[in-house]
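pinned: reference chain
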Amino acid sequence: MARVGVITGLAAEAEFLSEFPPERAPRVEIAGASAARAEKAALSLLDRGCGAILSFGVAGGLDPVLHPGTVVVADAVVGTDRRYATDAAWRKSVMAALVGSGAATEGAIFGSDAPLLTVEAKRACAARTGAVAVDMESLGVAAAAAARGAPFLAIRAIADDASRTIPLWVMDAVLPDGGLAPGVVLRALLPKPWTVWGLIGLARDQGRALGALGRVALRLGPGLGFAL
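pinned: its structure tokens
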């Protein structure tokens, strides 16, 4: 039986999908905050027999009404000059399954090559693209799905909302394998120890987003809402 292929950015996002029985679990690859790695990994999953491909993980919020932990089920993934519609039947199935599970909404996700670190950058992106959230993997996954003619969906939970500024060094702490480099964090905090409070707030909101993803995975099951 064909399985769903899943691309995440972080190892922590992939852990929720390892709880399913091995014979039914989705096939997962970690792209480490890179659209190019996400596209390559998604193509590999599809070429190895996956019947559909999902971008799954956390995102930055662009719409001010979306708070940390809100789940966005993408109706489209947009880039600077491209727009990919997601699979309508799969999206409808997921939204129906998430009724009563907490905050979930539909909207477009912007695929960025670089993190949007400031409130002003997020506001400008929202005005320019109409997207409600941003991440760094979904555009690559969408391009791979389009190349193979495969069903595609993105499910993302808001970690940093539209009002939160992200320190530049945070992205340096994300490794290509989706892990985190604690040495980068320490080097950033040591000369400015008072910034630890901002990091605690960011970690708290990241925890809310990861918790929401865990509940989504549990609610959808190993097929992740797709009828294979």
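why pinned: The chain has a mean pLDDT of 90. The two ends are 8 Å apart (CA to CA).
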